[in-house]
């Protein structure tokens, strides 16, 4: 047993090294790599990913895992190792069932399909992407059928990104939310709208970067084990113990965009920076559970960052870095960061209508995997659903079905994790107030680090040791519900928009 465990640890160490180097190359590609260096970096990523794939599907690795899965052996492993053996063995078995030729064809198609999507989005022409999407859909269905022949394919996909979550659970949560948001959004649309013209202007990018660093330090991002660079789309990447990096994107006319992206990615990073170091090289230290991860980034971005009290202690400092803010009344700023209005693009949406953007994608994915819709019908279905859920209709494919990259590489089942994250946040907020007292008072008193410490202790330190359902159950002692999130929205926007309750 000791020998087998030592062999497993050796494998895990190697896999981690491959992971770190591909992540570093990916980071470089997205931030610094010069035009002519792109191909060689992409080739290196392909090389190291293939090596990692070979290792994790090798017969020896499978034998080691199978041996440690035997109950007498399994019981002797510590919790992190048990989770590791269980997850890697499941993945190993799944990959064994996928024919190699099929897998190669699928991965190659993903790369081409992503390129086709980019072109189609630029040209604003769905027909350029349709044949690829059609193939991606049918191959993804087949891929999941190979992996788990006895399970519902869409449930398998959901479970890939958010362990333990299935359609029945999501149907219930999303329906609850959809019904609850309808009356609130109607009232908001009929209320007096804020005048936000005081924010118009040009904001120096260097100054925006200083404001970003201030915000990151303020929420608890550790610059000793993290760094920030610029990329087209903001993201977070973990490059090994002690190194969690984020990126940001800056718009000259819209300083709020980079500020809130920094808080969002900062939330992801704070999670990764605070995982118990003793989990190194185990599955517990990996970023799985996308909903749980998104719950942390969205907690910082929305529940904390869009609370006016978050800004009370630092609004003056913000004005020193970005002088225009000296002339923006605090009340106007608060209305601007909580401006609710249906819009076409998910990534630009406010925290309330954002929920409906995700519900739209979830309902479409459900229809796709129930074989209820053909690829040609998808843009029309998208537009109909936008009208039904948000009351607006895209004029073009680029502001409709072509806006997100996720489907182009077969990442079906990923979208729901964004909204699950917010649903968890509603529950976490309720629990924090029970344990620590009023969030408004904590924030207004400049004690935000108390919140970060609470999240570190209750969630971050465990990494992916438990799945999201288990984490929420342990902390809140109640089953998943969208009611706390709805309560938060209703209370907050009734006050801000002076709605009749
Ligand atoms: Zn995120």
Tell me about this structure:
The longest helix has 30 residues, at 2-31. The protein has 501 residues and is mainly alpha-helical. The protein has a three-stranded mixed sheet, sandwiched between helices. It has helices spanning 2-31, 38-57, 59-69, 71-74, 79-96, 100-123, 130-147, 153-161, 167-190, 205-219, 255-273, 290-304, 308-311, 315-321, 330-336, 353-369, 378-390, 416-436, 439-444, 448-458, 468-476, 483-496, and strands at 226-230, 236-238, 244-248. A hairpin with a 5-residue loop joins strand 2 (236-238) and strand 3.
Descriptors for this entry?
globular; mainly alpha; binds zinc ion; 3-stranded mixed beta sheet; 501 residues; single chain
How do the strands and helices of this protein lay out in sequence?
Elements: H1 2-31, H2 38-57, H3 59-69, H4 71-74, H5 79-96, H6 100-123, H7 130-147, H8 153-161, H9 167-190, H10 205-219, E1 226-230, E2 236-238, E3 244-248, H11 255-273, H12 290-304, H13 308-311, H14 315-321, H15 330-336, H16 353-369, H17 378-390, H18 416-436, H19 439-444, H20 448-458, H21 468-476, H22 483-496
Parallel strand pairs: 1-3
Antiparallel strand pairs: 2-3
Helix pairs in contact: 1-2, 1-3, 3-5, 6-7, 9-16, 9-22, 10-11, 11-12, 12-18, 16-17, 16-18, 18-22
Bound molecules: zinc ion.
Report the span from N to C terminus.
Answer: 64 Å
Give the DSSP E fraction (strand runs of 2 or more residues). Answer: under 5%
What is the number of helices? Answer: 22
List low-pLDDT spans. none
> How helix-rich are the residues, as a percent range?
55-70%
Largest sheet: 3 strands, mixed
Strand order of the largest sheet: 1-3-2
Number of strands: 3
* Ligands (ions, cofactors included): zinc ion
Based on CA atoms alone, the radius of gyration comes out at: 23 Å
Secondary-structure element pattern, one letter each: HHHHHHHHHHEEEHHHHHHHHHHHH
Give the rounded overall mean pLDDT.
95
Helical/strand content category: mainly alpha
- Morphology call: globular
